[in-house]
Design brief:
With about 70 residues, this protein is of the alpha+beta class. The protein contains one helix and four strands, in the order ββββα. The protein has one domain. It has one helix at about 50-65, and strands at about 5-10, 15-20, 25-30, 40. The longest helix is centred in the C-terminal third of the chain and has 14 residues, at about 50-65.
Length: about 70
């Protein structure tokens, strides 16, 4: 399976989403202060995540980011 990439906008923040394999994703925070910074998520049973679930995960990531450093502390 080749990696599929698309854009996700959450609370005015833009993420590039790469689906590496069934149920495995990497989200890069494109509008964040640190180039290339983001997170990965995967399901145990390789089931795909819905767009809504990926949005929830991105919101959770953004809530954890320190406003001064732009990183999760």
């Amino acid at each position: 399976m080749s990696a599929e990439t698309w854009q996700l906008v959450v609370d005015a923040e833009r993420f590039s989403v790469v689906a590496h394999a069934a149920g495995a994703y990497h989200l890069t925070w494109e509008t964040g202060p640190n180039p290339g910074y983001g997170f990965s998520i995967a399901t145990n049973d390789r089931s795909p995540l819905s767009r809504e679930r990926l949005e929830e995960e991105a919101r959770g990531f953004l809530r954890q980011v320190d406003a001064e450093t732009g990183h999760i502390e």
